[in-house]
Amino acid sequence: MTDFWFTEMHAEDAKFSIHVTEHLYSEKSPYQQIDLYDSKTFGRFLTLDGFMMLTEKDEFIYHDMITHVPMAVHPDIKHVLIIGGGDGGTAREVLRYPTIEHVDLVEIDERVVRLCQEYLPQTACKLDADPRLHLYFEDGLLFSKKAKDQSYDLILVDSTDPIGPGEGLFTYDFYQNCKRILSEDGILINQHESPYYKGDAYEMRRSHSKIKATFPIAEVYQFHMPTYPSGHWLFGFASKKYDPIKDLQAERWNAFGLYTHYYNTNLHKGAFMLPTYVKEGLENA
Asked: pLDDT per residue over 47-90, tens digit each?
């Protein structure tokens, strides 16, 4: 048996590797290289252009934190836009709320969705199973441009890094469109990169500067993602109205009765308490 390892470079002189028990699938789509692997420790995992997207073992962390933080601040959310998120994990968590009426999921690469349905049903289980969910296979930036004003209460930008298909989701133009199509009490959550390695920290600052210039409230919160570079990862929280800590409605969120393996309303407050080096990096954005 060949000793096969998946390796992702986290910096020029630092890399992360997982021993692969089986290379399940490989395809070059019109947008990116898609690979699915199996492993003993992390289970099945998905990579795009050689970058780790998710593993069966730790995906719950990312999907808990992108979804439940805004829902605990604004429990009356009914209309949701997910941009990216082709693996289905974010949609799975959103659709756990009986109060959600309509979800649009916009993924540029249909092959990601179809392959995750085949190989990663853990995350993709709701993509064809809930009538509230509507799939669109198109560019998220263009979708946001043509969407009607104040169409959504929540926008979740579940994107790849700002290279390749995800690049347009880190622009002023995109954030301005998000502001326009959000309701007056709407919330934007975006994948905000990592503060640790130089390249990731640069993208963190660049994204934050644009969001701060667009929304009156722009905060950042953190979570621990073992298979992402450094394990220290961020989401951005932007709103026209809500402060993510002052406006936390813990009792109402807990009344939903949802079991979450990572998120809880005590953790919610702590997630916004950032280390000094991260705060300084964001202040200098």
From this structure: 999 999 999 999 999 999 999 999 999 999 999 999 999 999 99
Residue with tokens 């309303």, as numbered in its chain: 265
Query: Can you read off the two tokens belonging to residue 189?
Result: 């959550």
Task: Give the span between the Cα atoms of 265 and 254, in whole angstroms.
Answer: 8
207-228 pLDDT, tens digit per residue, is 999 999 999 999 999 999 999 9
Active-site annotation holds for 87: no
Other Cβ atoms closer than 10 A to 139: 17
Catalytic site residue from 158, 161, 173, 185:
158
Residue with tokens 């993602």: 225
Angle in degrees, CA 138, 107, 36, rounded to 5: 130
* Interval 189-201: pLDDT, tens: 999 999 999 999 9
**Selection from 88, 160, 98, 162 nearest residue 122 by Cα:** 88
Distances (CA, A) of 14 to 7, 11, 208, 226: 10, 5, 26, 15
Check residue 183 and give left, alpha or beta (phi > 0: left; psi -120 to 50: alpha): beta
